Amino acid sequence: MTSLTPYGDGDAGQRASDADRDRVAAVLGEGLATGRLTSTEHADRLAAAYTAVTIGDLVPLTRDLPGLPGTSGTTVTAERQEVTAVFSKVIRGGRWVAGRHTELRATFGALIVDLRDAVLPGREITLELNSFCGKLIVRVPENARIMDEGSALFSKRHVSGGHEGDGPLIRVTGKARFGKIILSRGAADWHSPWHD
Predict the structure, then answer these.
(1) Beta carbons of 71 and 30 less than 8 angstroms apart
(2) How far, rounded to the nearest angstrom, does the alpha carbon of residue 31 sit from its chain's CA centroid?
(3) For residue 144, which of 37, 50, 108, 140 is within the disulfide window of CB 3.0 to 4.6 Å?
(4) What pLDDT, in 10s, does the model give residues 92-146?
(5) How far is Cα 170 from Cα 13, in angstroms, rounded to an integer?
């Protein structure tokens, strides 16, 4: 049994859809988060999943991994995540599973999030960054492609650093109001005066 059941062996030649690839990516992400896969194995299998043409190409990638809990194998939706700092400082980093839609909110506080080691559920995620009288700092993988669709009112909003590569697409939405939002790919920007 794999995350692709009820597909049988007879369906191995069927062309894989984006949804099929995303289901496999979710299982691989859970495998990384639970320590069943090393980061190298995860990266290799994820690359193979997104270049797979048929179901037969996808099945071996998760054969040695359990499916996601609570799923039937026919629909896997990455959950929404929310991380909030209210009148406090919150730091999130290391290995954690981000949602396909992750909201980060700082209200009269500071929220610092490092996504470099996070497990991203697919090749595209949305980060909703909202800051009201607060500071929100996010570091993304250096090969990430960033699409900034956010806004600012009496605020600092800065998205920069690194070079766009073949990594995940990170769509940035949300509002900065009387606050500060920094999103960076490069280490130089991560330690910039914007942090102060």
Answers:
(1) no
(2) 15
(3) 140
(4) 988 887 888 999 999 999 999 999 888 887 788 899 999 999 999 999 988 888 8
(5) 32
